[in-house]
């Protein structure tokens, strides 16, 4: 459903353009909200546009926005956007993307200094023709210069797994410092988003200068972008699994007494924070990064006047004071979390007791059957499924039917020799472009578990991809659909089926949809998981193990599951061995 993405981008752009023309702020936020609602939705907006009423039934879509959606679906254009683009140079949209540069500044640069794109701005900085503008001190200009250079070098958001590796190193380093009381990486990383813009490190300490100095002089620091008393910002060049990666890290040093308030603020999301503050206001309270304070109408910041906060130390106590259940970070996206009456019992890493998607040396894995089983057992799992590739996957060492039969026998023998874990004979069988499977049914029937996955023909349009996936889902011997869309983050979009139809079929045929925990995949995506949860379908979270370290990726799969509000009992990997075995038997005799 890439139309949804196009639409969302369109509305986001209209909002930006409106801001640059100083349009009414309600108009700006209506378009921004529409962009977010569309991007977060699994509904097919092309289909919805057939009937304007069904569009307007969606929260966040008003009459005018609905008209524009219909217009776009029919003409691939929105007249308002075209008009705005005639008025505003489109290069300004890039200028607006520079961190710390808001619409007011961009407008000023444009109207007063004739800046219409990044190159103009670079030139203006070079010629020193903008420092006399309001709010444009030498320091701001210097930050802009650095940001432009960074933006043209590397604009891609960093995959969660890469950002998490960098964050782990930083957190561990600061935890060891004597002066440090607490250290947490907040922001999108804590919310488990699939890609990360920058890291937001929070450190509680009584020695802010020492901590900040240590931060700014770390060996990975390539450039110090900002150096304040409580706030520093650096760009790192870090080595992750042998590859150099650039990443911005913001540090805030804070006092332990207000750690919860800072953690809440810097965890975000921004939209979640906006809603929290609105809620506080309704209760005659003020919420900021220092705490939740009584609203006394004095104006000046309460923490500076020595006002005692109602709550500040922990997130739990702030949510409680706002009469909300504790909202897990992964839920903080303003996607309905404020309607929760109790904290949902979401799946956690420690609940995962089986792995249903693993490769051995028989195809493209690095571990033998026994080694794989011992690794799984060491992680407290009761079941491991051996699912090597099927015959069409020639580059990945896919097994011929004869080779698979021999492999099944070897798996059965290993199951006898390795104690304390059930080793299942399975296959990751290719879903061919027409939805048929890569082995005959009689061979599939000899297996304990079948994971069916699409690996090629991933540019098929939805009209082909939807029935392709559904045909595999309907197959009586298929238990799990592996990485259902085949997307690779930042690299390949993968299939864009009508995900609701796919989910409905999965529910009907008792087939689980996989969240592939590898950080390059995370497919199903969070919003797909949410739709699956709402429809009552089961989800598998699997590491697609090729080597022992792949088991560590489970946290990213679980984060994605939690972002999709997945309760523990709907994840098949949390079930007992007996319950799982019974479910896997499905239509096998
Ligand atoms: P990212 O870095 O693009 O992956 O996403 P975040 O969510 O980490 O965003 P970031 O790093 O810009 O800011 C971290 C958090 O700080 C954000 O989630 C909420 C909070 N925050 C930052 N700027 C604002 C703001 O202008 N208003 C509000 N309410 N909160 C903000
Ligand atoms: Ca961030
Ligand atoms: Ca940040
Ligand atoms: Zn695969």
Task: Report what the structure shows.
There is one protein chain. It is built from 24 helices and 16 strands. The protein has helices at 2-20, 25-39, 45-48, 52-56, 63-75, 79-87, 92-96, 103-113, 118-126, 138-153, 160-175, 187-190, 208-216, 259-267, 270-282, 315-321, 369-378, 401-417, 441-444, 462-474, 499-509, 526-535, 554-563, 577-585, and strands at residues 158-159, 180-185, 195-196, 199-205, 221-227, 231-240, 243-254, 285-288, 291-294, 354-355, 383-389, 422-430, 449-453, 480-481, 512-516, 539-542. It is of the alpha/beta class. The chain has four domains: 3-153, DNA polymerase, domain 1; 158-254, 2-Layer Sandwich (Beta Polymerase, domain 2); 259-339, Beta Polymerase, domain 3, CATH 3.30.210.10; 349-584, Alpha-Beta Barrel (TIM Barrel). Helix 20 (462-474) runs parallel beside helix 21 (499-509). The model has no long low-confidence stretch (mean pLDDT 94). 42% of the residues lie in helices and 15% in strands. It binds 2'-deoxyguanosine-5'-triphosphate, calcium ion (2 copies) and zinc ion.
């Amino acid at each position: 459903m890439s139309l949804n993405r196009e639409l969302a981008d369109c509305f986001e752009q209209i909002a930006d353009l409106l801001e640059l023309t100083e349009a009414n702020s309600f108009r700006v936020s209506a378009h921004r909200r529409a962009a977010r609602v569309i991007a977060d939705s699994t509904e097919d907006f092309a289909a919805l546009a057939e009937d304007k009423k069904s569009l307007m039934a969606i929260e966040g879509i008003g009459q005018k926005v609905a008209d524009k959606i219909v217009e776009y679906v029919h003409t691939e254009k929105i007249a308002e956007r075209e008009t705005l683009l005639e008025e505003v140079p489109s290069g300004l949209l890039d200028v607006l993307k520079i961190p710390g540069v808001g619409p007011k500044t961009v407008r000023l640069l444009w109207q007063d200094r004739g800046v219409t794109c990044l190159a103009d701005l670079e030139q203006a900085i070079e010629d020193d023709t903008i420092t006399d503008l309001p709010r444009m001190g030498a320091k701001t200009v210097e930050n802009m210069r650095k940001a432009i250079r960074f933006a043209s070098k590397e604009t891609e958001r960093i995959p969660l797994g890469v950002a998490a590796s960098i964050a782990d190193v930083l957190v561990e380093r600061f935890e060891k410092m004597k002066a440090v009381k607490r250290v947490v990486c907040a922001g999108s990383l804590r919310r488990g988003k699939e890609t990360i813009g920058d890291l937001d490190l929070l450190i509680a300490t009584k020695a802010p200068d020492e901590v900040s100095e240590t931060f700014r002089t770390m060996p990975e620091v390539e450039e110090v972008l900002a150096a304040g008393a409580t706030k520093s910002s650096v760009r790192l060049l870090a080595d992750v699994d042998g590859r150099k990666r650039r990443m911005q890290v913001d540090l805030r040093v804070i006092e332990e007494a207000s750690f919860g308030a800072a953690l809440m603020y810097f965890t975000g999301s921004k939209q979640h924070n906006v809603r929290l503050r609105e809620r506080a206001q309704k209760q005659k309270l003020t919420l900021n990064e220092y705490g939740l304070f009584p609203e006394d109408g004095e104006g000046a910041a309460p923490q500076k006047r020595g006002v005692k906060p109602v709550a500040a130390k922990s997130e739990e106590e702030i949510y409680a004071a706002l009469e909300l259940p504790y909202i897990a970070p992964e839920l903080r996206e303003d996607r309905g979390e404020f309607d929760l009456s109790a904290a949902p019992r979401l799946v956690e890493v420690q609940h995962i007791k089986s792995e249903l998607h693993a490769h051995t040396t028989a195809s493209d894995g690095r571990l033998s059957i026994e080694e794989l089983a011992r690794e799984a057992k060491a992680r407290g799992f009761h079941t491991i499924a051996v699912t090597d590739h099927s015959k069409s996957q020639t580059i990945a060492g896919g097994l011929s039917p004869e080779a698979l039969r021999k492999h099944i026998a070897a798996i059965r023998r290993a199951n006898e020799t390795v104690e304390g874990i059930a080793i299942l004979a399975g296959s990751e069988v290719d879903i061919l472009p027409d939805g048929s499977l890569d082995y005959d049914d009689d061979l599939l029937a000899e297996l304990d578990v079948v994971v069916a996955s699409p690996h090629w023909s991933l540019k098929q349009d939805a009209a082909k991809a939807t029935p392709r996936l559904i045909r595999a889902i309907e197959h009586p011997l298929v238990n799990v659909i592996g990485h259902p869309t085949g997307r690779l983050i930042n690299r390949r979009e993968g299939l864009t089926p009508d995900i609701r139809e796919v989910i409905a079929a999965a529910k009907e045929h008792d087939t689980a949809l996989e969240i592939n925990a590898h950080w390059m995949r995370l497919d199903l995506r969070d919003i797909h998981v949410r739709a699956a949860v709402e429809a009552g379908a089961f989800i598998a979270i699997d590491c697609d193990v090729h080597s022992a370290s792949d088991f560590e990726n489970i946290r990213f799969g679980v984060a994605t599951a939690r972002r999709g509000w997945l309760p523990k009992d709907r994840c098949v990997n949390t079930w007992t061995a007996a319950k799982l075995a019974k479910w896997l038997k499905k239509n096998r005799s």
